[in-house]
Design goal:
single chain; about 325 residues; alpha/beta; two-stranded antiparallel sheet; 11 strands; about 35% helix; binds beta-D-ribofuranose; binds calcium ion
């Protein structure tokens, strides 16, 4: 069983990943922490509460702060053309949801929950890495107490999706991502190298809606806006970025990984680029020395991953 804190910016593909975590028998979802990204943190928190209510999820929701790790970074705006004005595909989410939010900021919730369950908690982060980086800054000794960190973000051997160099979750807070990649905890990065190969067709989604009851029907309704966006990029369906990170936790054998130090470019033309230094290569002394080796997913069995996601939903 995996005790999971899900750090998320719902977000349409985030919603699918949340339902996956809620329904997978090997996952014990013990917390949801929100971050800005696909929408403001006010909106992503409201959306997390909405999905919690609609799907009967028990885990507490803790809200993140509304600033990047480096507060001087200019704000880049929200991708309403991908996730809708409400962040959930314009399905008329109520403005407020009458459920409590944990009184602690997200990063404090993460620290407290990990310290209460040493060695047991997996952090799955599928938005900006802001909350994880803030937790590391507030409590530098807590990283070794985390079982595993699995991230949806980055692009290693493929182009980014915000710039040719950078993927959205990393580009939105590169300083935070660099802190997370270089911390003394085991990180696996599930980036565009594998997520863009994992396209759920409209027929698969319709089958999930037919088999998965009201929660899956709601997910299908939310996803239509996202499919319309993705139709410009893939022939039939949508890329299920965030669910890939969740699938990795329960089925790592479906992924091919590469080890090496990972760093994030902060500023300039390649702002937000993720770069991995393979273990076997020698370089002169550099900012890559004496840092933990982390894993980057570079290939995936997309058909089996999609089946796992579909059967779980
Ligand atoms: C990532 O960016 C967001 O739009 C998605 O939710 C996903 O986490 C993909 O680049
Ligand atoms: Ca996301």
């Amino acid at each position: 069983m995996h005790k999971v804190i899900f750090d998320t910016d719902p977000g349409i593909d985030d919603a699918m990943a949340l339902l996956f975590l809620h329904r997978h028998p090997d996952i014990d979802l013990i917390g949801i922490t929100t971050v800005f990204g696909n929408a403001s943190v006010e909106t992503t928190t409201r959306n997390a509460l909405f999905l919690k209510r609609e799907w009967g999820i028990k885990a507490p929701v803790a809200k993140g702060l509304d600033k990047t790790f480096n507060p001087d970074r200019p704000h880049v705006g929200w991708p309403t053309f991908i996730h809708g004005d409400d962040g959930l595909g314009n399905i008329d989410v109520p403005e407020t949801i009458d459920l409590p939010v944990d009184p602690r900021p997200a990063h404090r919730f993460i620290i407290d929950t990990v310290r209460a369950n040493p060695g047991e908690v997996t952090l799955i982060a599928v938005g900006r890495m802001t909350n994880l980086a803030l937790a590391l800054r507030e409590d530098p000794d807590f990283a070794p107490l985390v079982r595993e960190v699995v991230i949806m973000g980055g692009a290693f051997d493929v182009n980014g999706n915000i710039t040719p160099a950078a993927e959205a979750n990393i580009h939105g807070d590169p300083e935070a991502a660099d802190v997370v990649m270089t911390a003394p905890w085991p990180v696996t990065v599930v980036g565009l190298d594998v997520t863009t190969k994992t396209v759920m067709t409209k027929a698969m989604l319709a089958d999930i809606a037919a088999r998965g009851g009201a929660p899956a029907q709601l997910l299908s309704d939310i996803s239509q806006f996202y499919i319309t966006f993705y139709e410009q990029h893939v022939p039939d369906g949508m890329v299920v970025h965030d669910s890939c990170a969740c699938a990795y936790v329960v089925a790592p054998d479906l992924f091919k990984v590469r080890s090496g130090v990972i760093r994030v470019v902060c500023g300039g033309l390649a702002d937000g680029q993720t770069i991995q230094k393979p273990d076997s290569r020698l370089f002169p002394p550099s900012p890559w020395d004496n840092l933990p080796s982390q894993k980057a997913c570079i290939d995936i069995d997309a058909a089996k991953t999609l089946k796992l996601i579909g059967d779980t939903l």
